[in-house]
Specification:
The structure is a single chain. By secondary structure, the protein is α+β, with helices and mostly antiparallel strands. The chain is built from 11 helices and 11 strands. The strands form 4 sheets. It has a 5-stranded antiparallel beta sheet with strand order 3-4-5-7-6, with helices on one face. It has a two-stranded antiparallel sheet with strand order 1-2.
Length: 357
């Protein structure tokens, strides 16, 4: 994993990253944990928060020679199961050696006494995270096309993995994915919403009345787009690692593709607080992106409008959840204050797709 915010300073000689006080990483505790797990450390540890995350906190931890990535949940404003770093660790460890690009796992700490939360340690992957439209603008048209092909190819490879064969047979229930997703995200809406929303209730009811029979089952990432990958620095068509697996489970790959396509909506700019690369007009439209995936993966995207409606509903809940954490004072950095402004447009987009059968 690489920090694309190259100007961010390391906090050398200090025991923690402190911005703000409640979201610090205790490097003394991390150092002791490394020693206990046999991770060789050469000199004092320093840490840097990677900008761009809207959920789990991600730090690059370094000594004089090596770098690691540490991920932990936020300190407040959490919603049930939405920040499960242990889940991330399990799926990425299982995917090592399958051809799906992931960072090599090093250690999982489930002892809350160490730093006050579960956390994971994985290798630092040298690569580029393309988050903004300005970064994407630096690429030629051919490079952008190669990048999209690389992303779709990696995504399709994930959905082709024999999840039972790599020990993930109990990672989730294969069938009934849409029903469980709708129930889960509706319950999270009840937790994070600022008040009643007629749009949210209408979309939720409409989706509940039109749930299709599931045709496929696979590992699903749940949050796939360009900025949740690391690309080779000399070739944007090569995906070095897929990151941010906290929403992963066993489910319907069609729903996973719909999420990737729904993220093309300009509301993502408000969620991320920047002109997001994934909303750029230089990338394929949602329909063209879906068609490219379908041709690559050889999986038919049946019941597409339902899954797009569900995807927009989930994005509305995610945006409202970020707004919830912002109001709770549990966010770091700038750009969190606009996430709530995207909720209505996501719900309207969902209603435009979801129809009652």
């Amino acid at each position: 994993m690489v920090d694309s915010q190259a100007g961010s300073p390391f906090h050398r000689g200090h025991p923690s990253v402190s911005e703000p006080d409640g979201n610090r990483l205790d490097l003394q505790a991390i150092g002791a944990f490394f020693a206990e797990r046999g991770v060789a450390v050469d000199g004092p540890l320093s840490a840097r928060l990677i900008a761009g995350g809207r959920s789990n906190l991600t730090f690059v931890v370094s000594d004089a020679r090596s770098r690691w990535v540490v991920r932990r949940p936020p300190t407040a404003g959490m919603t049930p199961s939405a920040h499960d770093v242990a889940r991330e660790f399990r799926v990425t460890r299982a995917l090592e050696g399958t051809g799906v690009p992931v960072a090599r796992t090093i250690a999982l700490c489930e002892d809350l006494a160490v730093i006050g939360a579960q956390f994971t340690v994985v290798e630092f992957v040298q690569g580029t995270a393309i988050r903004s439209q300005a970064q994407l603008q630096d690429l030629s048209g051919a490079a952008v096309d190669a990048c999209v092909t690389g992303l779709v190819t990696a995504f399709a490879a994930l959905h082709r993995v024999d999840y039972e064969g790599i020990g993930l047979g109990t990672f989730g229930r294969p069938q009934g994915y849409a029903t469980r997703q709708l129930r889960r995200w509706a319950s999270q809406w009840d937790i994070v919403s600022t008040g009643k929303s007629d749009l949210a209730e209408r979309l939720s009811r409409r989706l509940a009345d039109s749930i299709p029979e599931q045709q496929h089952s696979s590992i699903v990432h749940g949050d796939f787009r360009i900025d949740n990958t690391l690309l080779a620095e000399d070739d944007p068509g090569v995906v070095k690692a897929i990151v941010d697996w906290e929403l992963s489970t066993i489910g319907d790959p069609v729903a996973d593709v719909a999420m990737m396509c729904a993220y093309r909506h300009p509301g993502l700019n408000l969620v991320l607080g920047t002109s997001a690369a994934w909303t750029s007009g230089r990338l394929p439209s949602p329909d063209d992106l879906a068609a490219q995936y379908e041709a690559t993966a050889e999986i038919r995207l049946d019941n597409w409008d339902f899954y797009m409606g569900l995807a927009y509903y989930k994005l509305a809940v995610i945006a409202e959840g970020i707004n919830h954490r912002y109001r709770a004072g549990a966010t770091i950095g700038e750009g969190f204050d606009t996430a709530g402004d995207s909720v209505t447009s996501y719900l309207e987009a969902g209603l435009a797709h979801a129809t009652v059968r």
